[in-house]
Write a structure and sequence with these properties.
23 strands, 6 helices, disordered N terminus
Length: 394
């Protein structure tokens, strides 16, 4: 049977045959090598076709409600400080780690659950206390592609140069996959007994060029590359400009297994979020739209993005996608649509996102803050609305 891998050995024999002018053997060798190269070219073409498989449509979507604090005694569930505002998700071996936007009194910031084949969550439970509990306002999480490492990052949306009180909002963690109890800060700095990643602010500011910014997206790509999604920029949080701004930075792993960021920050995308959903009459044009999450699906080499908006009228969101190579080449994300051609639209504020199965099946957690409307509606602040989206590919 023909095998292209034999060509790797035969190539040396062909060179020898040419040197001694053995015509028959030389002709046979060259034919064999030509077949080998043709096979390898075809193999590469087929691989490219597989990697570039186009997302056709969302074929199934469900929107459900989870009770975040039912593991607590009944008298504690009514604590007004217990608000389920999940903004980041990590999935590993059937287990989910949900990171809450705001601290939870006497509880770890992480909640945990598992998910069944139909998209149903098991009852949420308190996660383990970990170094993450020293930080505030987690907004995004990601899983490395090249290494068994997880990441989580806070908003970086406030800082006081005179005092360390807000340093907790500037934290970037990593940990061995599945071991959040071993989480460590990237570029750890201590100021007035507060440990954070505050030194990273100057790295982001060098590209963003404004003193105020808010991180809400994080994804890890092949080649030890990280993508940071910026939702807001401006002179202060009182006058934000809503953005779809994506920055990129590479990381390396030192001999002691610590993470080092390479200060080569680049801008991958900078678009108006409203322009990305232009023409969708269901979107409220009076709202400020911004990027609220990024996720990468290695199975199909596909990127997913969430856009969201909020106002006194309520919450909204859309799901967008693009193939990684095309996005890196400058192509804009496009709206994910169902089989009837309608854009996937949420009446909640989608923020947390994780790939939970083959063909890029997504779990999306909605952080509605104190809003109780939408479809389905929350009955109280201790509940979370989440969506499971399944896709078909060409």
């Amino acid at each position: 049977m023909f095998s292209p891998f034999k060509g790797l050995t035969v190539e040396r024999d062909c060179a020898h045959a040419e040197s001694i002018n053995q015509a028959v053997w030389l002709r046979t060798c060259k034919q064999f090598l030509a077949h080998s190269m043709l096979f390898l070219a075809l193999l590469g073409f087929l691989q490219d076709r597989v990697l570039a498989a186009e997302l056709r449509a969302a074929v199934r979507q469900s929107h459900q409600i989870a009770h975040c604090f039912d593991f607590l005694p009944a008298e504690r569930r009514d604590d007004p400080a217990l608000s389920c505002e999940v903004s980041a998700i990590i999935y590993h071996d059937g287990d989910l780690l949900f990171l809450n936007d705001k601290p939870l009194p006497a509880l770890p910031v992480a909640l945990r659950a598992s998910i069944d084949s139909k998209g149903g969550l098991s009852p949420l439970m308190a996660g383990t206390f970990s170094p993450l509990d020293q930080a505030t306002k987690f907004e995004a999480a990601a899983q490395a592609v090249d290494d068994p490492i997880d990441f989580a990052i806070t908003a970086f949306d406030r800082f006081d140069p005179a005092h360390a009180g807000w340093d907790r909002f500037n934290a970037f963690f990593y940990w061995p996959r599945g071991r959040v109890d071993q989480a460590q800060l990237i570029q750890s700095t201590e100021r007035e007994s507060v440990v954070s990643s505050i030194k990273l602010r100057s790295v982001f500011e060098s590209v963003i060029k404004t003193p105020y910014f808010k991180i809400e997206g994080l994804a890890a790509l092949p080649g030890r590359r990280l993508m940071f999604g910026i939702r807001e920029t401006g002179l202060s949080f009182r006058e934000p400009k809503f953005r779809f701004l994506v920055l990129a930075m590479r990381y390396s792993i030192n001999h002691d297994k610590s993470i080092e960021l390479l200060d080569e920050v680049s801008v991958l995308a900078d678009w108006s979020a409203r322009d990305l959903i232009g023409g969708e009459t269901i979107a409220d044009p009076s709202k400020d739209w911004g990027l609220s999450s990024i996720e990468y699906c290695a199975d199909k080499d596909q990127l997913f993005f969430l856009l969201s908006a909020e106002s006194k009228k309520g919450m909204e969101g859309f799901l967008l996608t693009q193939h990684r190579a095309q996005f890196l080449a400058g192509a804009r994300p496009v709206l994910v649509r169902d089989q009837k051609g309608a854009a996937i639209h949420f009446s909640h504020k989608p923020e947390g996102m994780a790939v939970i199965g083959s063909d890029c099946r997504l779990l999306i957690a909605h952080d509605d803050d104190r809003f109780l409307g939408g479809i389905p509606p929350r009955a109280h602040l201790g509940q979370m609305v989440y969506s499971v989206i399944e896709f078909s590919f060409d």
